[in-house]
Amino acid sequence: MHISVIIPALNEEAHIERAILSASDADEVIVVDGGSNDATVSITEKLGAKVIISKKGRGVQQDAGAKEAKGDALLFLHADTMLPEGWKESVAQIFTDGNIVGGAFLLGINSDNPLLKFINRIANIRAKYLGLIYGDQAILVKKDKFFSIGGFRGLPIMEDVDLIRRLRRHGTVKLLKEKVLTSQRRWYKKGLISTTLKNWFYLFLYYIGVSPERIYRLYYKRP
Questions:
Q1: Do 140 and 119 meet the contact criterion of CB atoms below 8 Å apart?
Q2: Closest CA to 159 of 202, 196, 197
Q3: 103 pairs with which residues across the strands?
Q4: Residue 21 region, left (φ>0) first, then alpha (ψ -120 to 50), else beta?
Q5: N or C end: fewer C-beta atoms under 10 angstroms in the chain?
């Protein structure tokens, strides 16, 4: 099985190299840049990954990368996240089961903060028992299935939850036992408790039918 790793990026010069290097076993690494004005693109090119320029927006960028991907399976990796050693073998193994259409890794937050470790533990319980998987867990999906359900649909937010929800209607989404390692930055940027509560609130809005476009405007305080 050939695996394409797709990394959406916007001004990620501080993290992009580690993400790309962690995916070095991939058959193809595609970085989809949303208009960076830092060294993201030059670092990517130096490392030999393919660069695609796209409109800004994680859903839009990931859809653009998928259209260019040559692999049989797509793995969507956030630019501040690193794949574990042996990830490729684990991904290839789960897709030997014809009922599995996608999957994701357990989450590992790169922090020794006790509260953040607790949040990390809750996130993995949520993923394991409730099936709530987010994009920072490195979502993977068979390419043909990805396109047959419409991909990320260019959604500005909740694109990860929306994709997993639709994937489950067509087969099994497998949670791998290995952990990705993601940056602690988004929790510290707006506060640990505040970030967690807001994430739950916006997820609740999505599940009661509020559109991702409306949630996006609320999240970024736009009219």
A1: no
A2: 202
A3: 140, 174
A4: alpha
A5: C
Cβ 78 vs Cβ 99: under 8 Å: no
Beta bridge partners of 82: 181
Rounded to 5 degrees, φ, ψ at 158 are 65, 15
128-144 confidence digits (pLDDT tens): 999 999 999 999 999 99
Distance CA 202, CA 216 (A): 9
Q: How far is CA 203 from CA 36, 78, 135, 197, in A?
A: 28, 19, 13, 10
Tokens of 138: 């490195």
Strands (DSSP E) contained in the chain are 3-9, 28-33, 50-53, 73-76, 81-82, 100-109, 139-142, 172-182
d(CA 5, CA 19): 10
**Residues 148-170: pLDDT tens digits?**
999 999 999 999 999 999 999 99
Domains and CATH numbers, the chain: 3-187 (3.90.550.10)
Task: Classify residue 180 as left (phi > 0), alpha (psi -120 to 50) or beta.
Answer: beta
Quick one: DSSP state of residue 222?
-
Amino acid, res. 69: A
